[in-house]
Amino acid sequence: MIYIRTDSNPYIGMGHIMRCLSVADSLTAAGQDVTFILSDESADFLVRERGYKTSILRTDYTKMEEEIEFWPPEQPDFIIVDSYFVTRNYLSDLKKRIGENGRLVYIDDLTAFPYPADILINYNAYGANTDYEDLYKNSDVHMPRLLLGSAYVPLRTMFRRIPKKKQRRVVKEVLFSTGGADGQHLSLRFLRYLQSDPSSFHFHILVGNMNIDKEEIGKLAANMDSVMLHENVADMRGLITSMDLAVCAAGSTLYEICACGVPLITYILADNQILGAEAFEGASLAVNCGDLRSEPFPGEKILAEISKLAEDYEKRVETGERMQKMIDGYGADRMANELLK
Questions:
Q1: For every residue of 182-225, which 3-state class applies, written as one string?
Q2: Sorting pLDDT into bands at 50, 70 and 90, what band is 212?
Q3: Number of H helices, E strands in the chain
Q4: 55-65 mean pLDDT
Q5: How many CB atoms sit inside 10 A of residue 29's CB?
Q6: CB within 8 A of 100, min separation 6: which ones?
Q7: Taking 90 as the threshold, does the pLDDT of residue 197 lie above it?
Q8: Per-residue confidence (pLDDT) for residue 199, from 0 to 100
Q9: H/E element holding 265?
């Protein structure tokens, strides 16, 4: 039996829950029984819709040390934790809960402190270059087994065996994504900018399940011929591969776009996206527009970067090839195989 402890809500978006669902699919295919432990009902329907059992703690997702007493009494073989609100004490308490034969797994993006886990996963583009030895060097915490780098990116099975992207010379279709929640109201602000300064590109706006601006976005887009909205997309692979360019926050969707080979412009909306955006830029996988949280909405800058990349056909071809070489879509299976060794 495996417990996966994660959350999704309008404040933290969909990234944690989506990657954990991919891992759960691979573990289930390997014969494991998976239950999701959630702080509240926000993601309960999504998880159950995918066929998984849930246990709702009804606790504050930001105060994880207070939730231990509400966990199910059963002792699992594995606990996988994916949250930015873990503490050393919290992870230590979970290790005690699973006993000597169990394994505690933590999915890391932040390198915040020496995590007392048995297995540590950092699949990000910068993961393989993260100095965990230095992090644990002066600590009394034993360094876990490390699974690092993009070979372990846990994507859905639809992102496997994608043919090489054929870049069109004329760019027309552009995907715009802010993630599942969009607490910075970026989609709404982008539409308002396009309304005042129309573009020749056709924009496809991904509206996440937890986007609080959905109603207003819908009203604006209804009067804009250059905009199409996409909600609850079942065939995300089909949508992404039909695009000529993508503009996306530096979260989990970056790796889906990479698997499809669509040239990419990224930006930062949260602290945990900084390293990813910088790593993608450093590896010539994306153009980085920087941190968009503090400045006035940089619509002119975004459109300028789109136009610049649209005009550079050779760069788009090279970038697309590099992206698809990095991500093959089998990361969740590799992760599951390593966990079950």
A1: CCCCHHHHHHHHHHHCCCCCEEEEEECCCCCCHHHHHHHHCCCC
A2: confident
A3: 12, 13
A4: 97
A5: 12
A6: none
A7: no
A8: 83
A9: strand 264-268
Q: What is the pLDDT of residue 65?
A: 96
DSSP state of 165: P
Higher pLDDT, 296 or 334: 334
Q: What is the CA radius of gyration of the chain?
A: 20
Element holding 334 (H helix, E strand): helix 331-339
Q: How distant, in Å, are the alpha carbons of 124, 161, 317, 338, 340 from that of 27?
A: 20, 20, 35, 11, 9
Cβ-proximal residues to 272 (8 Å cutoff; 6+ apart), any chain: 84, 109, 110
Structure-block tokens of residue 24: 């759960």
Q: Are strands 103-107 and 119-122 parallel, antiparallel or unpaired?
A: parallel
Q: What is the pLDDT of residues 7-44, one digit of tens each?
A: 999 888 889 999 999 999 999 999 999 999 999 999 99
SS3 63: coil
53 by Cβ neighbours in 10 Å (0-12 / 13-18 / 19+) ranks as: exposed
